[in-house]
Design brief:
The chain is mostly helical. The chain has 13 helices and 5 strands. The chain folds into 2 domains: 100 residues, DNA polymerase, domain 1 (Orthogonal Bundle); 178 residues, Orthogonal Bundle (hpI Integrase, Chain A), CATH 1.10.443.10. A 3-stranded antiparallel beta sheet has the order 3-4-5, with no helix packed on it. Strands 1-2 form a two-stranded antiparallel ribbon.
Length: 326
């Protein structure tokens, strides 16, 4: 016999789920991630005039919401305050499906629902896009803009931008990790930075001499402007925000004439592939990137193997060439 559920509103259900994430000690970013996704569900439910009752959200309504997510067109604000248009994307509903599945599983466990309305919905995870690093030519063009600024009077910006670029590439830091660095997190003598990674886990990321020299030169300029203990500061001496760092890189790419897709996070991809080419060990790469599991690291391994397969074909492994055909 099924246990009678405790009636609860959809808004209250979402609120309770988010509270449970905090109570379970989940990282603030995890809480923010689910809050952002589930906010869209609540807004959609309101626009569709659904009654505020969680037990009325059935499989049909879940499908309706997910279909809307994958076919909508909307504007969003970028880091520099401008707006962009997001086009319909068939894979956009995947993270929402996972969020709803987790929300309703929790609701069943807590006795608010008798069954999970996503239970009969079977989504296939979208295939991960191939990891594409920035090319050596693109990286040289980005650094050339830094050198140009240093030589033409914009020394603070030039030294800072060069130091940030090299540290991104030498450590594979995430954007948030870079933005949150404090001066006290930097150890130039032993060449490492202390960071707080995903899940609020502390870690140390090493770098080598060229990066250390670039950071030291920047630190000389920083002393004259700093009004904060943040490592990376604006020309006004204030802390860089995550959005500010993202916009900084977009502007630098534009000035350098780098037209390929990708933003700051692609520097992490570039660092990962270069590290893997030398280390040739996906477990070491996992430690370098601080991934929870080997699965993400294996994405880089697969990408590198594909490169090696193409290179081998060009250097004597072509079946047609080997067989002497054509």
């Amino acid at each position: 016999m099924k246990q009678k559920h405790r009636e609860i509103g959809l808004h209250d259900l979402v609120e309770g789920f988010l509270f449970s994430l905090q109570a379970d000690g989940r990282a603030p970013r995890t809480h923010e991630y689910y809050q952002k996704l589930l906010r869209h569900l609540l807004k959609y439910a309101s626009n569709q005039n659904w009654l505020d009752r969680a037990d009325l959200v059935d499989t049909a309504r879940v499908r309706q919401f997910l279909s809307w997510i994958s076919t909508r067109t909307y504007e969003y604000t970028t880091g520099n305050g401008s707006t962009r248009l997001a086009k319909p994307n068939s894979s956009a509903s995947w993270p929402y499906y996972k969020a709803l599945r987790r929300l309703f599983n929790w609701a069943v466990e807590e006795g608010f629902l008798n069954e999970n309305p996503t239970g009969s919905i079977h989504y296939k995870a979208p295939r991960s896009a191939p990891i594409q690093p920035y090319t050596l030519d693109e990286l040289k063009r980005l650094l050339s803009i830094c050198e140009l600024d240093i030589k033409t009077g914009a020394q603070f910006a030039g030294f800072r931008n060069k130091a940030m670029l090299l540290l991104f590439l030498d450590t594979g830091l995430r954007l948030k990790e870079m933005a949150e660095l404090k001066l006290g997190d930097l150890n130039l003598e032993q060449r490492y930075v202390r960071i707080i990674g995903k899940g609020n886990k502390p870690a140390i990321s090493p770098f080598l001499a060229k990066t250390a020299k670039a950071i030291w030169l920047y630190s000389l300029e920083r002393k004259r402007r700093a009004k904060t203990d943040a490592l990376w500061i604006t020309e006004e001496g204030l802390s860089f925000t995550i959005g500010g760092l993202s916009s900084w890189f977009v502007r630098l790419k534009s000035r350098a004439g780098v037209r390929s897709k990708g933003r700051v996070h692609r520097l992490r991809h570039t660092a990962a592939l270069q590290y893997l080419r030398s280390a040739k060990d996906s477990f070491l790469l996992q430690l370098f990137l601080r991934h929870e599991s080997l699965e993400m690291s294996r994405r880089y391994t697969r990408g590198l193997k594909a490169e090696e397969a193409i290179e081998a074909h060009r250097n004597g492994a072509s079946p047609v060439e080997r067989l002497g055909l054509g």
